[in-house]
Design a protein that fits this description.
Elements lengths: L2 E3 L4 E3 L4 E19 L11 E2 L5 E2 L2 E2 L5 E9 L9 E7 L17 E5 L5 E6 L8 E10 L2 E11 L3 H7 L5 H14 L28 E2 L98 H43 L6 H40 L27 E8 L8 E6 L6 E4 L13 H22 L5 E6 L10 H6 L9 H25 L13 E9 L5 H13 L5 E7 L12 H6 L1 E3 L4 E5 L6 E6 L8 H12 L5
Helix pairs in contact: 1-2, 3-4, 5-10, 7-8
């Protein structure tokens, strides 16, 4: 299973002969530096570049290209070499881009000699850099590991080499650039912008489960990210990501995304999304490694026991690890039960096939023995599952109170001690998920921010867990309350003025549920009503998307008109498609497709059957949205191991005053709208 790293994470290398593939989207030159125990490059003879492509143990391409293949033999490196850095640089003597922020994020993979992918890393967050150290292979206590670096240099290749102690960095960089430029015409054609060469859409890690189980065209599956040997390791041996569970994150339709266009230096707009390309697994993951060895005691759970640059990121990765562990151990249990049932059926067939055993006590004894063997197998598998669930439950008990407001339940004390944040969070809690075997253990359903995919809260008919159909009007009200709670959470966890909420309620049917937002004054404008209100809001947001897209692409974020609000925005649409004509539907689809890249996000509260009159026209829209429900429902399919997860919305506790208190604090800090 491929380990997809984020910046700073490391992973052990089980092989010494490696192949490193690079997909950059535009022609770049690739090379490698060798470093001693202090990371210092001792001379030009320790740098592999297009002008000197072969060194002992490493061979790099001789020309600039959009796709590269580097060959490394760690066993053949000189004894004095302790580090090997893989770098990329943009050619300086071409008319192409001069900074990585203007091109798709480069993607790297490290594979074994048989082609098995060991590690992958997408270099996100680059802007004015013209050269970057992508990966570092290093030796620690006799073991080789790889670290995702992503260290960029605005000064280009010469600055990169100088930073590693090379005295002739400028001359060597010029030599490498000249050699790459001379053969630039041999560069391979660039892949489709924004797409990984493997054709798999980026997504959020834990959000891999968030796929409608009944969707006609399910999204591409998501693999777990395995940072591996990063210290400290998870107590029960599981591995953490990228959503990258795009924990949860992530559940996106398999579609190409826009090429990353970061903000220009000094700009005020940054609506880009990290490209986290994942490989679709072809086989279920291995059985759970939760169970300790004989005689060992389970490690005591610790909040933040995962890799990451901050506690927030470590907790996010830990939640994803918990999801992965639960999926694995449940898959192992179900597999054991299936095997026991299959063996029982086979043994009973053998009894019936023997005429001598059909009558008398012999047949009955054989049946009882077969059932006893099945029960023994199932009991043994259940004991392992219960042991794993006990450890996961203990971990959840320490992780849940440590989560930041964006990921915490509404009943957690962190909401009462909340202060206006200075930075937006990395993830958002949409609710909880669980499996039938894991009740009452719940795993938070987290998605990465900014939202790369719109949300749809289904207000259609729905049966409760006991099979009773709920009243349609009640479900519509609950769906709108769920939307209000999500909007309030988004407003509360962003810096004041950095996030705005707009509402379209054509018939005014959601007025009661919207009262917490309207009374507190946190909405960017009053809810739009009627067909005219729908048209006005959609025209305004479409214009904003168009202008911001053009400004970001041109590197002129500061030239936007004064009336364009550059804050990220959430559009809540109630009772879709009521009040929508064909033109309005087209604009809504445009916002769903183009809006997330420039900070406009969509939340529909609707019954899909109400839009049946449009036929298949709206099918792509529904498939592009992440479906949630106002009541617990078993509708989230897991293409990774085939589980059907039960989703529970994140609701305000009955009688709690936390929602109006939080919204009042948000309103006091927000800029006032005229």
């Amino acid at each position: 299973m491929t380990a997809e790293l984020v910046r700073g994470q490391n992973h052990p290398l089980s092989q010494v002969r490696l192949e490193i593939r690079i997909s950059a989207g535009v022609p770049v030159l690739a090379g490698a530096t060798l470093g001693d125990e202090h990371g210092r490059v001792r001379g030009p003879q320790w740098v592999a570049h297009p002008g000197a492509a072969a060194l002992p143990g490493v061979e790099v391409p001789r020309h600039a290209a959009a796709e590269h293949r580097l060959v490394v033999d760690l066993a053949a490196l000189p004894e004095a070499v302790h580090r090997l850095g893989v770098f990329l640089a943009l050619p300086t003597s071409t008319t192409g881009p001069l900074r990585f922020g203007a091109v798709p994020a480069p993607h790297t993979t490290v594979s074994g000699p048989d082609g098995t992918e060991l590690v992958s890393y997408t270099l996100t967050g680059l802007d004015a850099e013209a050269a970057v150290t992508a990966l570092e292979l290093y030796r620690k206590q006799g073991v080789w590991k790889v670290r995702a670096m992503g260290q960029g240099y605005a000064g280009g290749l010469s600055a990169l080499l100088a930073d590693q102690g090379l005295e002739v960095a400028g001359d060597l960089a010029a030599t490498a650039q000249d050699a790459a430029t001379d053969s630039l015409s041999q560069a391979a054609p660039a892949p489709t912008p924004g797409g990984d060469p493997r054709g798999v859409a980026p997504s959020d890690p834990l959000a891999a489960v968030a796929v409608d189980a009944h969707t006609a065209v399910p999204p591409a599956p998501q693999t777990a990210v395995a940072p591996g040997a990063a210290e400290p390791a998870r107590s029960h041996g599981s591995q953490s990501p990228e959503g990258e569970p795009d924990a949860a994150g992530t559940p996106h339709a398999a579609q190409a995304t826009q090429a990353r266009e970061p903000q220009p230096p000094g700009g005020s707009v940054d609506y880009t999304h990290p490209r986290r390309a994942h490989r679709a697994p072809t086989q279920p993951p291995p059985p759970s490694p939760l169970t300790p060895a004989a005689g060992e005691q389970p490690a005591r759970p610790v909040a933040g026991d995962a890799v990451g640059w901050s506690m927030e990121e470590r907790l996010y990765n830990q939640v994803w690890g918990m999801f992965e562990d639960l999926a694995r151990t449940t898959a192992a249990y179900r597999s054991a039960v299936d095997f026991a049932d299959s063996r029982l059926e086979k043994e009973l067939d053998q009894v019936l096939a023997d005429p001598r055993a059909r009558l008398g006590t012999t047949s009955e004894a054989a049946r009882e023995a077969a059932h006893a063997r099945r029960a023994q197998l199932v009991d043994r598998a259940r004991a392992v599952l219960d042991r794993d669930l006990a450890q996961l439950t203990a971990e959840a008990e320490v992780v849940e109170p440590a989560l930041p407001p964006a990921c915490a339940r509404w009943d957690q004390p962190v909401w009462h001690a909340r202060r206006p944040p200075a930075e937006p969070p990395i993830a958002l809690r949409l609710g909880d998920i669980h499996l039938p075997e894991s009740v009452p253990l719940r795993i938070p359903l987290l998605v990465r921010l900014p939202l790369e995919r719109g949300l749809w809260i289904d207000s259609g008919p729905m049966a409760t867990a006991d099979g009773v159909m709920r009243d349609s009007a009640e479900l519509r009200h609950l769906a709108m309350e769920t939307a209000v709670a999500l909007a309030a959470r988004l407003l509360a966890v962003h810096p004041p003025g950095a996030f705005a909420v707009r509402v379209v309620d054509p018939a005014g049917a959601g007025a009661q549920a919207l009262l917490p937002l309207t009374r507190s004054g946190v909405l960017a404008a009053p809810p739009a009503a009627g067909a005219a209100g729908v048209t006005r809001v959609l025209e305004d947001l479409t214009r904003r998307v168009d202008l911001v897209e053009m400004a970001v692409r041109a590197g002129a974020a500061g030239s936007l008109p004064a009336d364009v609000d550059t804050a990220r925005q959430l559009l809540i649409v109630h009772d879709f498609p009521h009040g929508f004509d064909d033109r309005a539907v087209t604009r809504l689809r445009y916002l769903a497709d183009e809006g997330p890249a420039v900070g406009v996000h969509l939340l529909l509260v609707a019954d899909r059957e109400d839009a049946a009159a449009y036929g298949p026209l709206l099918d792509p829209l529904w498939r592009s949205l992440l479906r949630l429900t106002p009541l617990p429902g078993e509708h989230l399919a897991d293409p990774w191991v085939g589980h059907a997860w039960t989703y529970e919305p994140s609701r305000i506790p009955a009688g709690s005053r936390i929602l109006p208190e939080v919204l009042a604090e948000v309103a006091r800090a927000l800029p006032k709208y005229e």
